Amino acid sequence: METFVVEKSNRKVEVLPDLEALSHRAAAIFVNTSRISIATKKRFAAAISGGSTPRRLYTLLGSETYRDQVDWQRAHFFWADERCVPKEDEASNFRTAFDTLLSRVALPEKNIHRIKGEEAPDKAAMDYEEEIRRFFGESERPGFDLVILGVGEDGHTASLFPGSKLLEETVRSVLPVYLEEPSKNRITLTLPVLNNADQILFLVAGSSKAAVLSEILGNGGGKKGSPAGLVRPVHGTITWLIDQEAAVKLGRL
Ligand code: 6PG
């Protein structure tokens, strides 16, 4: 099955045959974006997500195929969100990235800007906001070179869930997310920071995502209430990499 691409203003949708093809395409975009950022800013700042879909991408970037294509000395890793668990925990987004990528490349430890999921959510969010402010500077709204996001079946992205008051946040860059089960609490970047990125890359795979994707991308996009549909970069671009299974309900884009 061919790959097909639909580009409209700053939004690009690429449908690829499967997760493997999608992950290689994402790796190529990661490498290319890192080179452009390092060439222009002497550094590359990426915010990455957890969940299952990006694992193959991280594994590829840490593999012989791609690891020598990135100047890891100038690459900085942040997270779009984290679960409120210790970094050794299986549910930790940091651990996912560390096991599959960060521990396999020559990345200086100081370039890893982890959300401390083991701390009290409020403190972890404040500390992370401070870390981001130190990195991007006081005055500026943080502007990541690349943000990698996923979409839940309910339309959530990062840890911004449908109906959440956090979707209305206009000032804070990082907020705690209190969920019914405290063990499921999270820390998340807010929409103003996500939408200030130079490049946003959504990775979406599997038939379970088809319904929510057709809501978000079909009919002109951004159905009210789906947080992923509210991710609209103010000056950057957004690329949706979708596999064939997830694209089945996408009508004309
Ligand atoms: C997380 C993520 C979350 C994820 C979606 C999709 O911490 O879980 O950041 O927003 O991207 O839940 O997850 P899958 O890729 O597992 O479908």
Structure report:
The chain has 253 residues and is of the alpha/beta class. The protein contains 6 helices and 10 strands. Strands 1-2-10-9-6-3-4 form a 7-stranded mixed sheet, with helices on one face. Strands 5-8-7 form a 3-stranded antiparallel sheet. Helix 1 (19-41) crosses helix 2. It is globular. The protein binds 6-phosphogluconic acid.
Order of helices and strands: EEHEHEEHHEEEHEHE
How many strands appear in the DSSP assignment? Answer: 10
Counted by DSSP, the helix tally is 6
Sequence of strands across the biggest β-sheet: 1-2-10-9-6-3-4
> What structural category characterises the helix and strand content?
alpha/beta
Principal-axis shape equals globular
Please describe the biggest sheet, giving its number of strands, its sense, and whether it closes into a barrel.
7 strands, mixed
> What are the bound molecules?
6-phosphogluconic acid
**Share of helix, binned:** 25-40%
The gyration radius over C-alpha positions equals: 17 Å
Distance between the termini: 18 Å
- Average the pLDDT over all residues and give the rounded result: 93
Q: What share of residues are in beta strands? A: 15-25%
Unreliable spans are: none
